[in-house]
């Protein structure tokens, strides 16, 4: 297969994947578990939490189209001190890639946050069980899901 064809198929798969998330607010409200897709694209960045003990080090995933609207999500071995004290590690699962198609109505990405507003999205997801789908953790036919929680949020209403 030529390089041009591989590039074309990769772009096509990316577009189909991004357009395949067809969730509604009602679907999200009725779900107890949601999946947050992080693709390192526009309005997304990641950083390591600093000044914390080694066992509680974590990654912070930020969705932020501007300086007024942000949602920070945290993933790590332990999500907080209570879980550490109780020796409850964050859940990590390896699933087949077909999982993306099965759960497409429960997968949120930056476009969902922007379309529905950061305030509305926050209040929709803050009590739900959340898992991260990190684009870098998708391999051939498998992907790794990591439990996460909301670390912080900020929104601006006009």
How many strands, which pairing sense, and closed or not: the largest β-sheet?
8 strands, mixed
Class computed from helices, strands and strand pairing: alpha+beta
Determine the mean pLDDT: 82
Quaternary class: single chain
So how many helices?
Answer: 6
Order of helices and strands: HHEEEEHEHEHHEE
Concise summary:
The chain is of the alpha+beta class.
Notes on the structure:
This protein has 158 residues and is an alpha+beta fold. Helices cover 30% and strands 35% of the residues. The chain has six helices and eight strands, in the order ααββββαβαβααββ. Strands 1, 2, 3, 4, 5, 6, 7 and 8 form an eight-stranded mixed β-sheet that branches. A hairpin with a 6-residue loop joins strand 3 (58-63) and strand 4. The longest helix has 17 residues, at 3-19. It starts with a helix and ends with a strand. The mean pLDDT is 82.
List keywords for this structure.
158 residues; 8 strands; eight-stranded mixed sheet; single chain; alpha+beta
List the helices and strands and how they pair.
Layout: H1 3-19, H2 25-30, E1 33-38, E2 44-48, E3 58-63, E4 70-76, H3 81-85, E5 92-96, H4 99-102, E6 107-108, H5 110-116, H6 118-125, E7 129-139, E8 142-154
Parallel strand pairs: 1-6, 1-7
Antiparallel strand pairs: 2-3, 3-4, 4-8, 5-8, 7-8
Helix pairs in contact: 5-6
